[in-house]
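Much of what follows relies on a compact textual record of a protein's fold. The record below shows the convention in full:
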Amino acid sequence: STPMSSVASVSENTQVSETPKPFASSDPAARYEAGEGNGCSEQRTCANCPAVFSSENAFSAHIHRKHVRRYSCAICPSTFHLKTDLKRHELTVHRKDLAADTHGFRCPNPACSIPKKVFIRRDNFERHVSRCK
């Protein structure tokens, strides 16, 4: 659960479009919405997904938020942008390594159909309790 490196890097599967692409729309309102007419004359298209950006800052933020993975799982090849996502992955996917009684939540409903089920994630537990009435 340590960062892959001190400097975030784009994974080998990530392609970054370095060449700005011109606006394609002839609709003035759509062109303004996309950034033309508000100081931007070019847009950036992400090579990894259909996202399009009217500013270099928005494009760069998208690449780092969606396509750069700084944290890697020590057990499997999964990688994550946020450390909290890695922790959640470790707790949910690799939970067999954990003692279930020391970490997790059990349904307090005596009529629960799965009374021995231990929920590792609080959000899944809360969703179960709200439906288990």
Remarks:
- Confidence is low (pLDDT under 50) at residues 1-25.
- The first strand starts at residue 44 and ends at 45.
- The chain has four helices and six strands.
